[in-house]
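User: Hey, my collaborator sent me this sequence without any context and asked if I could get a structure. I don't really work with proteins. Can you help?
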Amino acid sequence: MSFLVISNKKWPVSPFASSLRRRLIREHLGLLPPDYVDHVTQNSHPLPATNQYDWGSKEDLLVQDPLSPDFWRVLNGTAKTNTEVFRDVFHAVPDDGGISAKRFMLTNLVRTTEEYDNFVTKTEVDHVADYSMPLSYIVNRLSEVRGHVVEMPLHYMENVQLIAPGINLEINAVTGRPFI
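Assistant: No problem. I've predicted the 3D structure and written it out in structure-token form, which is a compact way to encode the shape of the chain:
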């Protein structure tokens, strides 16, 4: 039997559900060891083989309690670092803007179409924002990215009306579809 720990209280859960939740969280936070194609483990095989999980490891204990201060520190710190790197290297959108820690570049909040046009560069999509950045700088910055988590932009394009006036987006209670 495995336990879900929430605020230092233990709740019994199945080992599969607990290991799945912890593994997914660790993947998003970049806390899993590298997985090489030619490295075959018990987890590489289909059912009925059981999965191995490193119960009690430092990384496992970090994600054991999703409400612990240590977990939130890692979650928010990882998201902040990843967001700053993507802002600096790619000018990724959507983005609320902020300070790029390494180049000390201030980007404003992107709330209007004018601010969007000033923020987004004219480089190809998925390319670096500034072709004059040295390759070593780009590689070093991208090496700081861990996992997949980023900060959610809460103010991106908030002053732009994206829906044409007169369109009613209330949901019809009977059909579950919007009134049009």
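In plain terms: Residues 72-142 form one domain. You can pass these tokens on to your collaborator as they are.
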